[in-house]
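Human:
I keep going back and forth on a fold encoding question. Comparing notes only helps if you start from a blank page. Show me how you would write down a chain together with its backbone fold. Write it directly below this note and I will take it from there.

Assistant:
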Amino acid sequence: MSVEYQVRPVVQLHWASWDDDYVVFDETSGQTHQLDAVRAYVLDLLIEAPRLIPYLAGALSQSTSVPASEAAELIEVVINDFQTIGLVEAIAS
């Protein structure tokens, strides 16, 4: 069984950005989160559809300067951060 990650269905995000800095406000929790470009990119992919870590790592590596060898580890950190703040959840696929 694989594990995909998705933005929690109850989350309602409002975005603002300045260059490579992003702020998202979660209307449901009332929390505001500051994101760098990598975290904003990953969150945007997860808004589109549930994703596996290998998919996210490949997309990140192709779209940014993050080397493929580091992308999966970085994605795991980002996913853990998002789970901690309540934006993302794991689902069985």
Observations:
- Residues 3-92 form a domain with the Outer Surface Protein A; domain 3 fold (CATH 3.90.930.60).
- The mean pLDDT is 94.
- The beta strands are 3-7, 13-18, 21-26, 31-35, 88-92.
- The chain has one domain: 3-92.
